Amino acid sequence: MSTHADSTSPLQALRDSLPTLTGATARAAAHIVADPATAGRESITRLAEAAGVSAATLTRLADLLGFDGFPALRAAIATEHGREVQGGWQRDIGTEIGPNDPPEQVLGVLVAAQHRAARQAMGAVDLRTADRVADWIAHAARIHLYGEWGDSVALHELYLRLLRIGRPVWWHEGAQAARVAAGLVGAGDVALALSRSGRDEIALDFLARARANGAHSVVITGDPTAQLATDADATLYTGTREGTAWTDHFAGRVGDTLTAALLWVLVAQRVPDAVGIPQNPTTITIGDTQ
């Protein structure tokens, strides 16, 4: 008898066996591999019908893999698939929320994550540094921002807010755009990057080039020990480091957004006459851009 049942996951055993199977047995194996969730719960009759084979074929397939009949194979497939689903969920979403949690529990976890991240940011953000960066931004002739993917969410809002109060600001994504932007700055200008991980090589290059041209280099990050942070003229630590799951990322975005919002308000305090003034009074009101 084969030892597949004892030594290998049933789904992996099926995948490994596919090249050597033929005819109805091959069709049955391919059907199970394509939809293990259904195979793990259907009766032998219904699964055979769906796969276009006989129940006897499924029994032979189970025997070939070393299982004591199809029910044993089906149970092993259900267990294995459940583990794969749970493992994938935990890698992506995290362990704080389960796939069967009710909506109110999911909401509670997300709210708690936001509150936790906000409290962490309150204790982590260096207010003197934030004040100094706000001075730089308020008086800069050019402000260039860089951030990609998830890092761009809070940064793009900062860009829009600064633009709204008349600051000469640009927002960039991609290595080429970042290099061009860094080449345009000079003394007194500001180059600001947001990188939760602190390991963004494009951001590192962007700030280094801008700094070499005399601009102030600023980073908002979740890792104050990263080279990106230690090389910058000013580092704003958000209090939430990069995590491995979506719930970690979701919580960290709160710190990013809070830090960027703090910067914007501090800049606005320095140019109060620019706040609330529409660029075209005939078409724009303050309510349109809030």
TrEMBL record:
Residue ranges of every copy of the HTH rpiR-type domain listed in the record: 8-84
Q: Does the keyword DNA-binding apply?
A: yes
Cross-referenced PANTHER family:
GLUCOKINASE (PTHR30514), HTH-TYPE TRANSCRIPTIONAL REGULATOR HEXR-RELATED (PTHR30514:SF1)
Q: Name one GO biological process term.
A: carbohydrate derivative metabolic process
Show the Gene3D superfamilies listed in the entry: Glucose-6-phosphate isomerase like protein, domain 1, Winged helix-like DNA-binding domain superfamily/Winged helix DNA-binding domain
Which top-rank group of organisms is this from?
Bacteria
The protein's name: HTH-type transcriptional regulator RpiR
Mind listing the UniProt keywords for this protein, alphabetically? DNA-binding, Transcription, Transcription regulation
